[in-house]
Amino acid sequence: MKKTAAAALTLILSVMLVIAGCGNGDGNSKGNNKGNENLSKDNETSKVEGVSGASEASYTPYDQLKDKYDIIIIGSGGAGMSAALEAKEKGLNPVIFEKMPVVGGNTNKSSSGMNASETKFQKEQNIKDSNDLFYEESLKGGHGTNNKEMLRFFVDNSAGAIEWLDSIGIRLNNITITGGMNEKRTHRPEDGSAVGQYLVKGLVKNLQDKGIPLFVSADVKEITEQDGKINGVKVLFNQADEKNITSNAVIVTTGGFGANMDMITEVRPDLAGYVTTNQIGSTGDGIKMIEKVGGTTVDMDQIQVHPTVQQEKSYLIGEAVRGEGALLISSEGKRFTNEMNTRDKVTAAINTLPEKAAILIFDSGVKTRVKAIEQYEKMGFVIQGDTIEALAKEINVPAAQLQTSLDTWNSAVKNKKDAEFGRTTGMDNDLSGAPYYAIKIGPGIHYTMGGVVINTNTEVLNKEGTAIPGLFAAGEVAGGLHGQNRIGGNSVAEIIIFGRQAGIKAAEFVASQ
Ligand code: ADP
């Protein structure tokens, strides 16, 4: 394709994106997922302070491409955009290359929120939390296998990340809880809507305000070296034009490999046939490119299966639905697990049911508190009944049993004791406000915990544990932080905390050259 044709294509795509509101949003905690068909009108039009102009996003035209930048950032999810903003803040000229025609990656699909401890918003709301508790609960969730240095850095910088976002117009002051946590630390947008689209819009707006170039349909194929030093990338623009672009540092923020079934089944043959909530661009490119220049990986077989995925559309139903009170029931109308257990345990419980699927049940109160449910409704996932009996009929479960399950649950909420399954969170409100609702779900591939090995400076390490000069990585592409199981809400925190760190450390590296 000729340059002019490529530029025209980029322009057309940009205009399409402006119309589409620049996102796809379904949700998942960094609840990953995809597609413009998932766009939430509510998020588009919601008047959230500080980000109202973000939907006018357009991307940098191809004819503005330069041969050299201070820092090249590969991938435009939350990690890449945070890195770009911090590098710019340090006075450098970063660029972002995104292979898809839209920004935001799986970050767009995140729904539940961003975990953080000792935040100003928690304090305002009298939520008593501590970084130590956040550390311990994340470590327990990861079965003690998390990289402890990374985890310590993560919790200690979580409140700072919430404040940084607030300072750039991205306010996450509505706090809920996710599975495996004992304290409310999952920060969401003020109106309780899914975090991903809100975050992406806000970050894009900041990139635009600061004049940071962002090229879409810019597929990075290789990280290049000269004289043993990282010196840039090879990029394929608009599937046609290959170029070498040089830089003093490269930050890899390409996300995970949750949409690459070959990579998944190579390490986890048992997951063949599972649906995935991941956007199609999550193909593990960054991992492969980093391995080629000497990097190494950790925990590659630790793949998170999310328990509540709408199977026909592979669409993640965020954990906030349970966090705000929903139950999981079997086709017999019975509860079968502590719904607020960690994702691996809830998934295992669903897989013991004969149909390996279950039904989320909630009332109008949950629906009001979790804005994302409006999106699920628009997508046709939500079944409604004016009474429990009517709902039971709609979802084909025994009405008397469903009524008994809800009555037992409502007394458990009242007495603050779930004698059946020992649930202790997501019990602030009972399920007694008609109408009642149901969403049918089953497990789906959601998140790849493994990835490249980095240190807390986000430097990519080689097999000997030495930093590869000029090469940084952050976000889902990196492994170690979550160990064997990621807690919902921790990946959005990871991309902001380590994304910022990558921008700062790459800028320091460049300045020291
Ligand atoms: P994170 O949550 O770690 O920020 P995301 O999945 O949100 O990760 O974003 C990663 C982004 O990187 C996605 O938009 C994806 O399309 C993009 N990406 C993946 N591989 C490449 C590549 N080879 N070149 C450019 N962009 C890439």
Automatic annotation (TrEMBL):
Pfam families: FAD_binding_2. Residues 26-54 are annotated as: Disordered. Gene3D superfamilies: FAD/NAD(P)-binding domain, Succinate dehydrogenase/fumarate reductase flavoprotein, catalytic domain. It comes from the Bacteria. InterPro entries: FAD-dep_OxRdtase_2_FAD-bd, FAD-oxidoreductase_2, FAD/NAD-bd_sf, Flavocytochrome_c, Succ_DH/fumarate_Rdtase_cat_sf. Its cofactor is FAD. Coiled coil: none annotated. GO terms for molecular function: FMN binding; steroid dehydrogenase activity, acting on the CH-CH group of donors. Residues 70-492 form the FAD-dependent oxidoreductase 2 FAD-binding domain. Keywords: FAD, Flavoprotein, Oxidoreductase, Signal. Residues 29-38 have a biased composition (Low complexity). Residues 1-20 form the signal peptide. PANTHER family: FAD-DEPENDENT OXIDOREDUCTASE 2 FAD BINDING DOMAIN-CONTAINING PROTEIN, FUMARATE REDUCTASE. Belongs to the FAD-dependent oxidoreductase 2 family. FRD/SDH subfamily. This is Flavocytochrome c. It comes from Paenibacillus monticola.
